[in-house]
């Protein structure tokens, strides 16, 4: 089952920008460094806030270890949870044989992926990845094996009384 993307990319950018530039409490945002390792072995990195969690599972080949960042954030009204992961240097030199981002506690409303970031962002073609209710994965046979950034935003289901 696939969900319909209901955010425009400009809305998602604004949401991520607000999370990045607002002086939010440490309970609402978190950015951590992790190491992406080649070798074809499946690895998983997880980070969360409260009951919401983002996990990134991947296998990559070629090159050497790369330092990546994962940023998770919860909106002020607790209705949106975001997860972004990227290589700060821009282009990754690893070839990803698979990837999956999973959001726990939310239903995905928006996702974007890039093969290169920095001076000129290069988005993946829509057919290269699949957006489900709680996961974003590569599309077998269509994914170009290049990934440098992935952003996912999910609705938490939190409703005010």
Molecular structure report:
The chain is mainly beta. The chain contains one helix and eleven strands; from the N terminus they run αβββββββββββ. Strands 1-4-5-11-7-8 form a six-stranded antiparallel beta sheet, covered by helices on one side. A five-stranded antiparallel beta sheet has the order 2-3-6-10-9, with no helix packed on it. The protein is globular, with a radius of gyration of 15 Å. The chain starts with 8 loop residues before the first helix and ends in a 6-residue tail after the last strand. 30% of the residues are buried. Residues 1-24 have low confidence and may be disordered.
Q: How would a textbook summarize the main sheet?
A: 6 strands, antiparallel
| Number of separate strands | 11
**Approximate shape:** globular
Low-confidence stretches: 1-24
Number of helices: 1
Topology, please?
Elements: H1 9-21, E1 29-36, E2 43-49, E3 52-61, E4 66-74, E5 80-86, E6 95-104, E7 107-116, E8 122-123, E9 129-131, E10 135-138, E11 149-155
Antiparallel strand pairs: 1-4, 2-3, 3-6, 4-5, 5-11, 6-10, 7-8, 7-11, 9-10
Short structural summary:
The chain has 161 residues and is mainly beta. The chain has one helix and eleven strands, in the order H-E-E-E-E-E-E-E-E-E-E-E.
């Amino acid at each position: 089952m696939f969900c319909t993307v209901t955010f425009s990319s400009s809305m998602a950018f604004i949401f991520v920008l607000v999370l990045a530039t607002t002086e939010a409490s440490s309970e609402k945002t978190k950015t951590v460094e992790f190491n992406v390792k080649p070798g074809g072995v499946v690895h998983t990195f997880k980070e969360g806030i409260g009951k919401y969690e983002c996990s990134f599972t991947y296998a990559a080949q070629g090159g050497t270890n790369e330092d990546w960042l994962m940023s998770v954030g919860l909106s002020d009204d607790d209705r949106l949870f975001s997860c972004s992961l990227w290589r700060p240097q821009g282009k990754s030199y690893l070839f990803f044989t698979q990837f999956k981002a999973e959001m726990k506690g939310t239903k995905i409303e928006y996702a974007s992926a890039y093969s290169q970031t920095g001076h000129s962002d290069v988005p993946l073609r829509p057919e290269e990845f699949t957006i489900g209710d709680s996961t974003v994965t590569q599309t077998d046979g269509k994914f170009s094996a290049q990934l440098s950034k992935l952003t996912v935003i999910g609705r938490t289901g939190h409703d005010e009384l």
